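Problem 3 from the worked examples.
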Amino acid sequence: MSATAIERPFDDEPFSLTAIADEIMERHPGYRVEIIGGHLLVTPSPDAPHARALTKLMRPFIAAGLDDGDTEVLQSVGLWLPTGEEDYAIPDLVIVDSDIDDHLVENNAYDPAPFRLVLEVTSGNWKDDLRTKVAAYAEARVPVYVIVDRKHQRVHVLTEPTVGGYANHQFHAPGQSLTLPRSIGAEVTLDVAEILTAGRPKKSD
């Protein structure tokens, strides 16, 4: 997925970025539109390898029991951001408290409080995932941010949100495994090579 940032066209005239976002999604079904720092990020529909990586990722979370009881494992849930009046992001995958429905803010986006983990699988918008969203998710105090970096073939795990980013940033290469913080609700270990392989196009025989 490649993303395009659209800046405010008329700083001296009132308008709603949310209304523009809704119009874009209506005209281009399947596109993802986010507002971060007063900018629209428009992302086309994901490709099959992107979706395949998410499927691989969901399995260990579900096997650990994170989709039952106190937590849920969900895709494409809006996260209301404190970075601007209309700001929200739509992470690829999240682990949230099971009372997520009680935290709806508006525009199908939810207060950050029930979010235990957000995860992004990069595509053409990898710079947004590695830079823009790091600061935004940290400001929202999301405890764990995972980035499956298909561009550079590594998996990033960011914890301890602070001003402007995360105090702890670790990255893992193929051949390694990583264990996520138990604060997400269970101990989950991911195989880096398996995830990154799933995120690459399959070669024809």
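Problem 4, a separate protein:
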Amino acid sequence: MPSTAVVPDGAPAVSPDPSPTAALVRALDDLARVQRETAGRLARELDLPRASFGVLRLLDRCGPVPLGDVASRLRVDLSVASRQVSHLVDAGLARRTVDDDDRRARTVELTADGRALLRRAHDLIEAMSAATFADWSADELTAATAHIDRVAAAVASSHDPGAASGRTASTPLSRTEPVLRGAPTA
């Protein structure tokens, strides 16, 4: 049962000794918050909306993809993905092309400027990550990565019936380029 102690702002405090799953959820909330803050900082340094950075990273990982796949992989509505892609197209960071097999379908891909911006972002992420994890050993980083991947897979499988078979909205398409580890999400 949660504690009824009162915290300074008047809100009831949560039990100081939550269940292990409640502690994990709280830690994930904290991680999501600092990821948003870090992504916002990175986006400001790149002079780019935070949401656009996620689309750029997706296009970098997957290569040219249909707009519907952008929406599916980002787990957003098609209209949201379309607005984000339009911003990138207007900024010259991505381009839409007509699919040769289906003239109604549009494919989205990075431009040279988009790839250059991602290289700059990668350099910023590497510098931020190196400073943040300077005291961590390679084994600690590897173990943390494995745990985070496992948590992400468990959460994704609880929301996506196809996840148990390995077919999720976040499964990479055809390219197998490495994902930027430690990069903030959008």
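Solution to problem 4. The first strand starts at residue 65 and ends at 66. The chain has six helices and three strands.
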